[in-house]
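User: Quick sanity check before I run a bigger batch. Here is a single chain. Can you write out its predicted 3D structure?
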Amino acid sequence: MTSIASVTIEASDPTAAERFYTTAFGLGGQVRLRASEAPTSGFRGFTLSLVMSQPADVDILVDAAVNAGAQTLKPAAKSLWGYGGVVQAPDGTLWQVVSSSKKNTGPASRQIDEIVLLLGVEDVKASKGFYVDHGLTVAKSFGGKYVEFATGSDPVKLALYKRRGLAKLVGISPDGTGSHRLTIDSDAGTFTDPDGFAWATASENASL
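Assistant: Done. Predicted structure follows.
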């Protein structure tokens, strides 16, 4: 089973980005930072989701992110599937902070249950086939709309979503050009997928 150790986010100011992620979310090794001035504009084609146990936990992280300099794209609120909000980090990365629960069941906590990388792709079925050919195992698949891969107890989970659908989900335009400013660190090898998302072996990026 393919293991995703971390993601590397490219930022103009990686020191400031690291400070933000530590302060806002308490993230450590799951998110690495690398300096980059690669041109990028608009939607970068992906989001990162922090899955929490209850609404109060979502509120804590959303508030912390905003206080640390994030922009609110969708205020935390109830929905059909649960509770959540969307913020954009100062480096431009989009973060969903969500819970499948609509009710609090205990004291608020900053404990993150899962980190999920959602890649917005043009053709979900084609991308699913590409990733299966590269050794990933499908856990859930809903036609040409959504695919979730089996990653066991890995620090980062992976799913595919239609690019336009993902942009709509977080409340922004699907238009965007230039670099994704993202590298996925795993044991699947070094390659670039049909939508331009780069993968590298975790050991190659270990010193970043």
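Helices lie at 14-24, 55-67, 124-133, 163-170.

User: Great, the batch can go ahead then.
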